[in-house]
Amino acid sequence: MRTLDPTVLNEVANHPKVRPWLKGEGEVDLSALICDPANIALQFEGGGWVLRNLGACQYEVHSLFLPEVRGAKVRDNLKEALEYVFLKTDAVKLVTQLPAGNVAARALARIAGFRLWFGEYHVLCIEDWIQASDACLQAGQQFHEKLEAISPSHAAGAAFLMLKTNPAKAVWHYNQWAAVCFAPMIDLVSISPLMICCGKVLHGPELEAI
Fold this sequence. Notes:
- The chain is α+β, with helices and mostly antiparallel strands.
- Helices cover 40% and strands 24% of the residues.
- The chain has 2 domains: 7-130, Aminopeptidase (3-Layer(aba) Sandwich); 135-209, no CATH class.
- The protein is elongated, with a radius of gyration of 19 Å.
- The two termini are 35 Å apart.
């Protein structure tokens, strides 16, 4: 879940086996970052992520997990976290610093799809995440069936998943793809009630064609 309460993540950050990987000395206090709604803090049992807003839809990711939190549980939460960040916020680019000796952080970043950027920094762009997302491809098929005017694709699926919670970003993202692929663009007619147009008009929370 997204949180503005720093209590749990501060405890994780100051754990004896977590604190050495963070910069600076003394007790870590993430309250200013987590309490600021411009940033994104995602928490689950045993840890989470803090994403610092860098501007221009870019965020720096800090991973915080207790030593005993490993395996499928983290991977499942990672999948949900990435879906939340890319589909329900303005984020289009994530960067993270991965110290050479932090094996766990590097393994998690590799699973997420981060690639080397420069030095110890790695990057994950929304386009890379979308192309690797099974959920986006499945949603692309649903979008194709509703409009009957586009080819099913990861990009169309991502837009379809974004529409209910982030319609402006959905239309912007889809039209970037459509311009390159010479596909019909979509127009955001109304946010409340939600209505988009691409030959057909999709309307309402279930995006039914009218």
